[in-house]
Structures are given as structure tokens and as C-alpha cells.
Amino acid sequence: MAVTIRDVAQAAGVHVSTVSRTFSAPHMVNADTRERVLAAATQLGYRPNQAARALTTGRTHNLGLIVADIANPFFPPLIKAAQAYARERGYHVFVADTDEDPQEEQELIQTLAKQVDGVVLVSPRLTNHSIERLGMELPFVVVNRRVKGLSAVLMDVGSGAVQAVRHLTSLGHRRLALLGGPRGSWTSEQMRKAATAEAAAAGAELTVIGPNSPTERGGTDAAPEVLGCRATGVIAYNDLVAIGLIEGLAARGVEVPAGMSVVGVDDTVAGRLNRPKLTTVAMPTAAAGRTAVDLLLQAVDARGNGAAAQTTLETSLVVRESTAAVRPGENPPAGAPEIAGAPAG
């Protein structure tokens, strides 16, 4: 005969309702009791009926996690941490990739709406207005975007950009470039504001180049503009853009860091394996994944009655091989025109 919830309760020495809460809301059950119930369930071979639970509780115990580009090495550590934390809380995660397309993002949200209890949006490309409207129908947590009325997990990219500018200016660089990300990116805008202010305070010139595709190709394509503005130090939107820029510069006879210093953002495996190893701003991706799921489950429990929460996570500069001191009296990199040609914007 099939093992029932009553069998588990009897074996664990608890009430049936405690077994039910262990599987539907594990955070509401004492850790020792929860472990005893789970051990009894495993020993008896009990598996909760997910469909029945959904009908009883009104919840699917599924969450959606939508990212801009799953091929970007920034996202997998966040996804893995979010899934692990959700599993501890008795939830499963459906992961979807928008390929940087806001229309695809909206369609995915609408598709998932009836299958999940809430959605984590990571680096969304939709407008704030669209996200606010969709958030009226389903609990949301947004990562790396501020949206009115929604909980958010922010990585302090502004501080990271400041650290990057200070690092480059401490090495003697006075002509800097910032390679921005895709149009409408919250992260890119925060970097631009912070880097512009810090460069001005340090007496350095900063040329903003973009928008750019947040890929290696985006960095490679930007190489001529970087050379055109005669920068000696560059901060890229992410590690992929930085790696692409290094490739584009090498193809034009400019070596990093001898002829140009380059700083990435994210601290991905790709940057650590690149040659030269990439100086970069480390982003707390795993912490962001766990925090986002935690805030989303709070929103699900509140059922629209809780206040939006915002958590900001610190970033830190990791110095490796792609930055070096500017050479005394250094001329513009080889191949650069005499007049800067890339306006800020």
C-alpha cells in the first residue's frame, strides 16, 4: 500500500500538520523536527503529491528564474546558488533565458505565471513600467535593477566602478575609457555615473563608449573606438567584453597591459583563465542568487501584503595581470589617430 502522510507522522512522532508544513513551508518547522520528519519520509519511501499540495495550499512550490543570457559565465553561479537555496526551502526552480530580448522576457513571464509562485528577474531588459505592470499579477524580485514596489537585490557596481577608476589612476592613467553594456542596462548606467564622477575627481579624462553588446564580440568591435579616444586604461561592462577588447587590441598590435590596461567586471572563470589574467571587479553572484530566492519566498508568503525590501551586496576589485603602471610620457597606443574620435554618451 502507498505510504501516507499519517504513516510519516506516526513514524516521526509528530502531528500530521507538522509533516505537511515540513514539505510545504519547511522554514516554519524546527530544524531538528524537520530532519526527523524527512528521515522518516525517506525511510518509508514517502513522496508528497505535488498536485494535491498545490490544490490545498494554492501554491505550486515552483519558482521562475529568468536571466538575460545563460551562456554568459556571470549567470551560472547565481543560478546554481538560487536552485540550491530553493531546494532547501522545498521549492523547485524553472530557469529561462531571454537572449537579451525584452519581448522574449515578457513572453516567458506570461508563460511561467500559472506554473510558479513567483519569479526572480536577473538583469532584466524590460522597461520598469512593464515590470511594474507584470508585478501586479505575480510576486517578483529583481536582481540588478530598481523597480518601484518590488523587492530587489543590487550588486554595488557603482562602488566597483569607483574602485576600478582609482586603481587605474593610481597606476598613472589619466586617459580612461568605459565600455558600456546594452541599451537600457541598469548596471551600465550605474557604472557610467560612478566612473564619470570618480574620474572627474581624480583629474582624469573619461570617454564613455556604447552601448555595446555584452559579449566578446562587443569588446572586439569596440577596439577601434578605444584606440581612437587614445585611452591608456579601460573599464569594460563585464569580463566577456574585456576579453573581447583584449583580442581586438592584440589584432591591432596593442598588447595588454604593456600598451593598454584593461579592467573587467564579474570575476568569472573566463577572466581567470584568460591570458593575461583579468583584473576585474568581483560580483557576489552566489549571494545574490540566495538572497533573491529568500526575498521572493517572503513575498510569496506575504501574498502582496508585505513591503518591498532592497538588499545591496558589496563588490571588490581583484587585481591580476591585465593592468600595469602607465609608462612615463607614454604616447597614445600604436595605431591611434592624433585626435580623439569617440564622444561620451
UniProtKB/TrEMBL annotation:
<feature type="domain" description="HTH lacI-type">
    <location>
        <begin position="3"/>
        <end position="57"/>
    </location>
</feature>
<dbReference type="GO" id="GO:0003677">
    <property type="term" value="F:DNA binding"/>
</dbReference>
<feature type="compositionally biased region" description="Low complexity">
    <location>
        <begin position="336"/>
        <end position="345"/>
    </location>
</feature>
<dbReference type="InterPro" id="IPR046335">
    <property type="entry name" value="LacI/GalR-like_sensor"/>
</dbReference>
<dbReference type="InterPro" id="IPR000843">
    <property type="entry name" value="HTH_LacI"/>
</dbReference>
<keyword id="KW-0804">Transcription</keyword>
<keyword id="KW-0805">Transcription regulation</keyword>
<keyword id="KW-0238">DNA-binding</keyword>
<protein>
    <submittedName>
        <fullName>LacI family DNA-binding transcriptional regulator</fullName>
    </submittedName>
</protein>
<feature type="region of interest" description="Disordered">
    <location>
        <begin position="323"/>
        <end position="345"/>
    </location>
</feature>
<dbReference type="Pfam" id="PF00356">
    <property type="entry name" value="LacI"/>
</dbReference>
<dbReference type="Pfam" id="PF13377">
    <property type="entry name" value="Peripla_BP_3"/>
</dbReference>
<dbReference type="InterPro" id="IPR010982">
    <property type="entry name" value="Lambda_DNA-bd_dom_sf"/>
</dbReference>
<dbReference type="InterPro" id="IPR028082">
    <property type="entry name" value="Peripla_BP_I"/>
</dbReference>
